[in-house]
Amino acid sequence: MNRLTRITAILIQLQSKKVITAQEIANRFEVSLRTIYRDIKTLQDAGVPIGSENGVGYFIVDGYTLPPVSFTEEEANALIVAEKVVLNQGDTSLQQEFNSLLLKIKSILRSSQKEDLSLLDKRVSSSFLVNSVPSDSLTHIQKSIAKNQVMEIRYRAIQTNNITQRKIEPLALYYTSKAWVVIAYCQLRKGFREFRLDRILQYKTLLEKPQFTDDFNLQDYHSQIS
Fold first, then answer.
1. Known InterPro entries for this protein (predicted)?
2. What are the backbone dihedrals phi and psi of residue 190, each rounded to the nearest 5 degrees, phi first?
3. How far apart are CA 31 and CA 196, in angstroms?
């Protein structure tokens, strides 16, 4: 990768997160920290408003926007694979949001790229064995996790089919071979519980402060229960 391409990619990476460390950028491009410092200085000298905070990282000052992004052929092709995976995962809310995103992305592709994607779309499948169970709450639960919100749900238990009303604090999500699962702090049980999204009958977000205020690490959680 030449330097100009790397600097452009660094600018896009800086806009992808609120704050990013020089080490994260260096790891991505497999270059030294000194090289990244030099590239950041080049962007700053070119007028890009990049701020920094010692011990935290770099950030783009609010209000700065990039010119329209272009995609390589390989990046455009990756969209098709991602689309097939999303369509096969069962949650309709995620499918709707991804389709909306994909339309926006496709609208800025070149005509030749659109033709290639159309052909590729007919010849890629994530699986012919669709075992996913349907759900429709994934995007709402994602939002609750991001904003640290409390949700109230009606839930049908897998083993007993009993229906309970619960207040949960969504903490993380993962996908099994057929269903999405939310890991949450359950106010009814006073501890962590897992809820399959296809078993959630009703849900709503509440204007309440969460009871669970500790840090939650998904990797640590899985290592403890495995």
1. CBASS_pafABC_assoc_protein, DeoR_HTH, HTH_11, WH-like_DNA-bd_sf, WH_DNA-bd_sf, WYL_dom
2. 60, 45
3. 42
Tokens matching residue 49:
């408003």
What residue ranges do the domains of the chain occupy? 3-60, 73-121, 138-225
Q: Is the pLDDT of residue 40 over 90?
A: yes
45 phi and psi angles, rounded to 5 deg? -65, -25
Q: Closest Cα to residue 203, out of 146, 135, 107, 133?
A: 135
**Distance separating alpha carbons of residues 93 and 18, to the nearest angstrom:** 26
For 178-184, the CB contacts below 8 A with 24+ separation are: 178/90, 178/131, 178/132, 178/133, 179/90, 179/132, 179/133, 179/135, 180/89, 180/90, 180/91, 180/135, 180/138, 182/141, 183/218, 183/221, 184/151
Taking domain 138-225, whether its CATH number is 2.40.30 is answered by: no
pLDDT tens string 55-113: 889 998 888 776 666 778 888 889 888 988 898 888 999 999 998 888 888 877 888 88
* 82 touches 129 (CB < 8 A): no
For domain 3-60, which architecture applies?
A: Orthogonal Bundle (1.10)
β-strand partners of 22: none
Quote the pTM value: 0.72
* Closest by Cα among 124, 172, 122 to 144: 172
How crowded is residue 91: how many other Cβ atoms within 10 Å of its Cβ?
25
Q: What b-and-e string marks burial along 107-137, b requiring 16 or more CB atoms within 10 Å of the CB?
A: eebeeebeebbeeeeeeeeeeeeeebeebbb
pLDDT at 129: 56
